[in-house]
Specification:
The protein is mainly alpha-helical and 501 residues long. It has 20 helices and nine strands. It starts with a strand and ends in a 5-residue tail after the last helix. The protein binds glutamic acid.
C-alpha cells in the first residue's frame, strides 16, 4: 500500500508555525517513502472557520516550499478535501455506527451536563458523560425526536479495561477507558465533530500514517475505537513533540511570534524557516545544521525524532538566517531577495500616497517610513505613554491587542472602526488615545497616518508591536499583574463581547 500522510489544519486563524512543522515532517516522511501528502481542511467548526484563513494557510505553506499532492486546490481521487463539503459522507457514517449500536442519541440539556460535571469534579473524578441517554429505549428515542427535542450523537465507550495502541515514537500507549468520554460525534446541527470526521476522512482518503502533534494522544483511543467499530484497519500513529518557548512552556504568541506570516513580513528567508523547523526534535544523520527540504527528505527517518520538547528559539533562527544570507546566497541574490521582500515598487507605492504630503525631497522618505520596514521599533517610556498613566497605557494596549486579534478583514476602514470603538468603550476621545498607538506602531510621535500604517504593516507585524510595547512596559515596571490581567479580561468580555484569541 503506498504511503499516504496528511496535514489537516483547521482554518480558524492565522497560519501557525506548528502547522508548518507538522506539514514538513509529514512531507519528508511521505516523500522518503515514495508516497503522497494530502492537505485536508478541517472546517467542521463553522463558526470559527473562514475562507481567508484557509487561503492564508495554503499560501504560507507554499511560501515555505511545502507542497502537497492532493488538496482543495489539487484534485485527487479522494476529494472533496474540505470537510464542510463532506457533511453527507460523515452523516452516513454516523448512521452506520447507530445501526451497529456503537453510537446513540443523547438529549441531555446543557444544564444537566453542567451538574453532572460539577458532581464528578467534586468527587475528583475525570469529568465525562455519565451515559444517561445510553439506556433509552427505541420508543423513548423516537418520541423525543418526534417531540422536536434537540439531540447529539455520542460514541459508546467501554466501561472497563484499557485502550492499547502503538505510537511509532513511544511504543505501546495504554489509556484507561474510564478516562475517555462518550465523545459527541455529531452535533445537534448535524455537523460532525473533529473526531468522527477525522477518522472517516483518514480512512476514505487512504491515509496510512497519521503524523500529528502530541496534544492528540489523549484523543487517539476514541479514534482507535471508531476504526474498530467501522471494521477498518487503524493507520500507524506518530505523535510529534510540540514546539516550545525557550522557557519550555508550549509555544505561544505571548512569548514568540507564532504566525508564519510574521516571519515573511519581518524579512526571514522561507528556506531558513523550513530548515529551522526541520531541526525541531530532529538531527540529520550527519548532524548538518544547514539543509534544504530535499536534503531533509533524502535521509528522513521518523524514528530519529526525539521526544524532548524542541525549543523554537527566535535568537537561533535569526542567527541561522544571517548564516544563510552570508553563506548560501550571493550578494546579487541577497539584493534580489530584498527586492522581493519589500524594497520594491509595489510596497513603496502603498506608502507614497500617505508620505507624499510630508516629502520635500526623496531623502525624507526613509526617515518617515523606515518603521514600515522594521521588525519593531525601539520605544522610550515618556514618549510612549505621553499623557497616559503607564499602567492605564498597558491596559489600553492589551485591550487593543485583543481587538486586533479578532479583526478581519484587515483594512483601513475596519482598523479605523476598531479604534473609534475602542475610544468610545474606554470613554475617551479618539485623539486622546491615538498618540499612544502612534508610538507603539512607529516609535515616533510624528509619522505616517496610523490606520494606513497598520494596514500596510499587516496583522502579524502590527500585533507584534503591541506585544512588544507591553513587554517594554513590563520591563519598566508597568506591566499587568496576573490579577490585573484577569480582571481586565473580565471587563473586556463584558464590554466587547466574549471572544479572546
Ligand atoms: N484539525 C486538527 C488540527 O487542527 C487536526 C489534528 C490531526 O492531525 O488529527 O490540528
Amino acid at each position: 500500500m503506498p504511503v499516504r500522510t496528511r496535514i489537516a489544519p483547521s482554518p480558524t486563524g492565522a497560519p501557525h508555525v506548528g502547522t508548518a512543522y507538522m506539514a514538513l515532517f509529514n512531507l519528508a516522511f511521505a516523500r522518503k517513502n515514495g508516497g503522497q501528502m494530502i492537505l485536508r481542511i478541517e472546517d467542521t467548526d463553522q463558526s470559527r472557520s473562514s475562507n481567508e484563513s484557509e487561503t492564508a494557510i495554503m499560501e504560507s505553506l507554499q511560501w515555505l516550499g511545502i507542497e502537497w499532492d492532493e488538496g482543495p486546490d489539487k484534485d485527487g481521487k479522494f476529494g472533496p478535501y474540505r470537510q464542510s463539503e463532506r457533511k453527507n459522507i460523515h452523516a452516513q457514517h454516523v448512521q452506520i455506527l447507530r445501526d451497529k449500536g456503537h453510537a446513540y442519541p443523547c438529549f441531555c440539556t446543557a444544564n444537566r451536563l453542567k451538574d453532572v460535571r460539577s458532581e464528578q469534579m467534586a468527587k475528583k473524578e475525570t469529568p465525562r458523560y455519565d451515559g444517561h441517554c445510553l439506556h433509552l429505549s427505541q420508543e423513548e428515542v423516537e418520541n423525543k425526536i418526534t417531540a422536536g427535542e434537540k439531540f447529539v450523537i455520542r460514541l459508546k465507550v467501554p466501561t472497563d479495561g484499557e485502550c492499547c495502541f502503538t505510537d511509532e515514537l513511544r511504543g505501546e500507549v495504554k489509556i484507561d477507558w474510564k478516562q475517555i468520554d462518550h465523545q459527541i460525534l455529531q452535533k445537534s446541527d448535524g455537523y460532525p465533530t473533529y473526531h468522527l470526521a477525522n477518522v472517516v476522512d483518514d480512512h476514505l482518503m487512504r491515509i496510512t500514517h497519521v503524523i500529528r502533534g502530541e496534544e492528540w494522544i489523549s484523543s487517539t483511543p476514541k479514534h482507535v475505537l471508531l476504526y474498530k467499530y467501522f471494521d477498518w484497519d487503524t493507520p500507524i500513529f506518530a505523535h510529534l513533540p510540540l514546539l516550545r518557548n525557550p522557557d519550555k512552556s508550549k509555544l505561544s504568541k505571548r512569548k514568540n511570534p507564532t504566525g508564519i506570516n510574521y516571519y515573511r513580513d519581518a524579512g526571514f528567508l522561507p528556506e531558513v524557516i523550513s530548515n529551522y523547523l526541520g531541526t525541531m526534535g530532529y538531527t540529520l544523520p550527519d548532524q548538518r545544521e544547514i539543509f534544504s527540504i530535499e536534503e531533509l527528505t533524502q535521509s528522513f527517518d521518523i524514528r530519529r525524532v526525539s521526544l524532548g520538547g524542541p525549543i523554537f528559539d527566535l535568537a537561533k533562527l535569526k542567527w541561522l538566517n544571517g548564516r544563510y544570507l552570508r553563506e548560501k546566497l550571493s550578494e546579487k541574490e541577497v539584493v534580489e531577495r530584498m527586492i522581493d521582500w519589500k524594497i520594491n515598487s509595489g510596497f513603496i507605492q502603498k506608502i507614497i500616497p500617505h508620505a507624499l504630503q510630508r516629502l520635500e525631497n526623496f531623502s525624507d522618505f526613509m526617515p518617515l517610513s523606515g518603521f514600515l520596514f522594521q521588525d519593531y521599533p525601539e520605544l522610550e517610556l515618556s514618549s510612549l505613554i505621553g499623557k497616559f498613566d503607564a499602567s492605564d497605557a498597558s491596559k489600553l494596549i492589551k485591550t487593543c491587542e485583543w481587538e486586533l486579534e479578532k479583526l478581519a478583514p484587515w483594512n483601513r476602514h475596519q482598523i479605523c472602526k476598531l479604534f473609534q470603538n475602542l475610544a468610545e468603550k474606554e470613554d475617551k476621545k479618539l485623539k486622546e488615545i491615538l498618540p499612544l498607538f502612534f508610538q507603539v506602531i512607529s516609535g515616533e510621535s510624528v509619522s505616517l497616518p496610523l490606520f494606513d500604517s497598520i494596514e500596510i504593516l499587516g496583522p502579524d507585524l502590527a500585533r507584534l508591536r503591541l506585544r512588544k510595547a507591553l513587554e517594554f512596559l513590563t520591563s519598566e515596571g508597568f506591566g499587568l499583574s496576573k490579577k490585573g490581567l484577569k480582571s481586565l479580561e473580565k471587563d473586556y468580555r463584558q464590554k466587547y463581547g466574549d471572544r479572546i484569541d
